Amino acid sequence: MKPTRYWISFLFLLVWIGPGLSARAADRMRAGQWVGTTIVGGTTHETSSCMSQSDADAMNGDAPAVKAYLETIIPRQICALTDVKAVGNQIIYTASCRGGGGVNTTKTVTTTYFGDRSEGTDSLGGKTQARLVGACK
Questions:
Q1: d(CA 93, CA 81)
Q2: DSSP symbol at 99
């Protein structure tokens, strides 16, 4: 009789705790100071940004949450974001951007997140990488 009660308790804990563990394992980003580089057209740009907990929560969310957050840092008048997908540790979207001299570009951006670092590419040859360096400054 006792072994059955222990198994039921174990299964209850697994069902109750399991979703919390898998949700944490799926975090794409953590809050804090992120630094990195973006390479566009052969030119390297240094980047640095503070990700608040609410920013990180949005980036760890579903596609609508990710799109809403991205639209706060990429103004719609500069780039229109479409086809936003948040699958596992990847964010994929299409950006149609206004360029200088009236030249518009459309690119697909794919970024893979590892909690404390990220790597990305776009369909026009751009590359990004970033890493978490600690608390926001």
A1: 7
A2: -
Between CA 36 and CA 45, with CA 42 as vertex, the angle to 5 degrees is 30
Per-residue pLDDT of the chain (137 residues; tens, 9 = 90+): 444 333 333 333 333 333 433 344 459 999 999 999 999 989 999 999 999 999 999 999 999 999 999 999 999 889 999 999 999 999 999 999 988 777 889 999 999 999 999 999 999 999 999 999 999 98
The backbone torsions φ and ψ at residue 76, rounded to the nearest 5 degrees and listed phi first, read -60, -30
pTM for the structure as a whole = 0.77
How many Å apart are CA 125 and CA 112, to the nearest integer? 16
Q: Determine the Cα–Cα distance for residues 49 and 35; give it in Å rounded to an integer.
A: 7
Residue with tokens 């980003």: 29
Answer yes or no: are the C-beta atoms of 31 and 53 closer than 8 Å.
yes
H/E stretch holding 20 reads: helix 2-25
Q: Look-up: residue for tokens 């719609």?
A: 76
Chain mean position to CA 42: 24
